[in-house]
Amino acid sequence: MRFLIYSGALLFLIEKLAYADNCGSLSDCYGTIQSATGVGVGIAVMVMTGILMDFFRGEGETEAASRPETKPTLPLDFSPFQPSEGLATYAAPEKQFAQPKVFDALREIGEKWQEAGHGDPIEVGDMSYEDGRPMPAGKDRTGKELFHSAHREGVDVDIRPGRKAGTIGPILDYKTSPNYDRENTQAIVDIIQSRPDVETILFNDKQIEGVKPWSGHNNHLHVRFKK
Ligand SMILES: [Zn+2]
Fold first, then answer.
1. Which three-class secondary structure string do you get for 72-84?
2. Tens of pLDDT along 157-176?
């Protein structure tokens, strides 16, 4: 998928370079790079920059390309997250509001996780703002701000994939992170999926059972509870 995106960008670039006198903010880029080889190198550098920016962008979601205008439909009776047994947090407190029943569920999930003898706690991230306003999810590679397409109704909880014991920090991409632990991730998913109040879990590792693939979900599980 990512390859296709970059290929698309490449075709677009090549077209622009071939037919335009300048390249907008990259003005003179074609005039100063005289040879086809030079253009090739330029493109390669840009593609690499894109890949590197992807890598360093961090844990934000990218499922929404622009600010969603829809309003939450439920009355907002959110409460703040309180850490409990088997749970830890990796997001700012103002982004961790949810419906009280979601916190009941998380508490039970954490207890089950702890009882099963797993060492490191399950790490929870973005949920909703107290007033349900759109939640930023980092920037794209042009610097444009992205927003979560969900996370407004107090029923969405981002969760870090399982990490290898003793490691810390984010899993930037399950495909490349040396800290990613598939077995731990499956154990987290199993506990969550066993609940009747869970609607869906989004994550892109096809070897994990019980999740659905979704753009922007190589670095976290997105759990949606039933409204
Ligand atoms: Zn999410």
1. CCCCCCCEECCCC
2. 999 999 998 898 899 999 99
- On whether the pTM is more than 0.70, the answer is no
163 vs 177: CA distance, rounded Å: 9
Task: Quote the ligand 1 centre to 136 CA distance (angstroms).
Answer: 11
CATH architecture, range 79-225:
2-Layer Sandwich (3.30)
- Give the separation between CA 225 and CA 227, rounded to whole angstroms: 6
Domain spans of the chain?
2-59, 79-225
Q: Which of 4, 183, 185, 170 is nearest to 91 (CA)?
A: 170
Tell me the pLDDT tens digit for each residue of 24-80.
333 223 333 334 444 444 445 554 544 444 444 445 554 444 555 556 666 678 999
Tell me how far the alpha carbon of residue 43 lies from the centroid of ligand 1, in angstroms.
33
